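pinned: reference chain
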Amino acid sequence: MASSERKILVSDIARMCGVSITTVSKVINGRGDVSDKTREKIEKVLDEVGFSKPLSSTKITNTIEIVMTHMANNGTIAITRACAFQVKDKPIGITITEVGEGDEGTDNALMGLLDRNPLGVIIMMSAVSDHAKNLLVSRSIPFVILDPIEEVEDRYCTVGIDNWSAGFNATNHLLRLGHRNIGTLTGPKNTQSSLARFAGYTAAMSNAGLAWEDLPTARGDYQAEPAYHAACELLDRPDRPTAIFAFNDLSAVCVYKAAHERNIRIPEDLSVVGFDNVYPSKYMAPALTTIDQPFDLMAKKAIDMILEAREHDGKVSEPHIVLPAKLIIRDSTAVPTGASAAPDDIDI
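pinned: its structure tokens
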């Protein structure tokens, strides 16, 4: 994470950009009285050299900041609660920052976060810009990205799950029950978690000798409204799937609603598998078969990484952790009407 090389000074940046030290300091500290052109020039050089602002004059606050796009997803709520539980016996507080959509909100929130100089940052966002990462690295603030959506880098830490295996196992469960027309309700476009879950799904389907390219897929973005419309799209198809693998539990809830509106019974007419195992999955009627994400362990690993980085000058013994996810079989999946489950000796 933190570099052991000589720190670049503000005076070095000023000389490289042909501006005053005062102007560089204004950009570093988020002041607004600098032209956009000059700011962009300075920020570009800061990013290129990995500038690290001395923090000796800024007291580290005993907080870990959780940064997220929205707190509407039960997965983010579960992680936040797990983080709070992990530090309940420590003199550490948890601060939540919602940044909303778009880079502007993220950058504004990030500047405030840098001024507070927290112990560390846990990031749960659909995208983290290089600019945001560079600023955190330059200030030597340890940060952990949960369930990263892109290829990871050695200069920061990540904690995620084996989304490919989880997608494979969820699909395999439906195949073993005898389903062949299995639809997917995916997450946001181009996010690693959704892509990996879909890759696991396609691998399972291919292993069963099925042409997954012809099977129904709709994008739900992990959010209620788009997931509901995507579920309606799947259930209104002439070749309606006999099973749907929803890429988060919130999307599965939307499948239940769309199915109820169409008098489609679960699991008699439609099997449903979710992903997360968060409230209210086990209280749904019928109780939801889903993939269990180990949120408690993810929170513990993230906080341990931050504390280790603070104690060892930015160094972490295991910076990238991938945890297993487990299939929880409940009542929302069954053998499709008129079919029989695959024999145990069939290679699925």
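why pinned: Residues 295-311 form the longest helix (17 residues). The chain has three domains: 10-49, 61-161+296-324, 163-293.
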